[in-house]
Amino acid sequence: MSRKYHVETVPFTNRAHLVARSHQAVRLDAELYFIDFKNKHATVILPKDHARSVRVNRILSRIVDAICPRLASRTHEPLDWAARLDWEAVVLRDDGIGAWCWADAGKILVHTGTLDHFTADEEIAVILAHERPEVTMYILVYVDDIILVSSSVAATNRLVLALSSDFAVKDLGKLHYFLGLEVTYPHDGLALSQQKYSQDLLRCAGMLECKAATTPMSSTETISATDGILLSADGATDYRSLVGALQYLTITRPDISYEVNRVCQYLHAPREPHLTAVKRILRYVRSTATYGLHLRPAPSGVLSAFSDADWAGNPDDR
Description:
- Helices cover 34% and strands 19% of the residues.
- With 318 residues, the chain is an alpha+beta fold.
């Protein structure tokens, strides 16, 4: 079973407040912190003598203590007593700060006993795992959304009850939408698609009404790093943005993985033929926006893969 949970607004709700927009973490004394929401939320501080408040603030204290020196070293600004952070921007930065913060927050929750018997994945920072012969559970955390996959309904209920003792957790029911991925449940498995994401991508590219293509790339035309005129600075930025968005689409669209990989090779200096190739992929996406992955139970755990090579088809490395 897989269910989706949302963390309510409390002083520290798993990783929800680590990505809240423009909040302020302030040291009240040597051991206690609170979060004051000034943009979207009212101030939410539990009384100091409240058992949950003390425990939650201690967890938050450890996280802020760990994060402030790291941020100070990156920003070259002193963060001795307070840190005003825009975590929604920080966690999306690709300089390592965001991933480190998420992984550290997850490990702290494990070590404090809230997620006892769970282990934090070293490779994928936002996944916590509980793997035992009798039950298997995985927790995926992104901002204030929690996806819980479990082989046991009873174990799920016990875990949610344990989390609720420290944090306000709301059950949103069966998973249907998460980070642009749409989830449906046909009778013979699980279906994943990104139809809405595809439409949004086409809209952003101004190609919502473009002529659809039946293939993502021409089999007769070749592109190279030196063909055509270089794009302008703004054009190159738009090119990289479109290619990055297409990369995310390949999560449920392996049929465009090869073509997206090809246009990724020209991110450093994109040219007009490269942009034309990107638009061809988008035209194909328009005609296949409903495509996705259909996952079915398999009798064996054997993973089959297929590959092909075209050593002569790439003029840049042949």
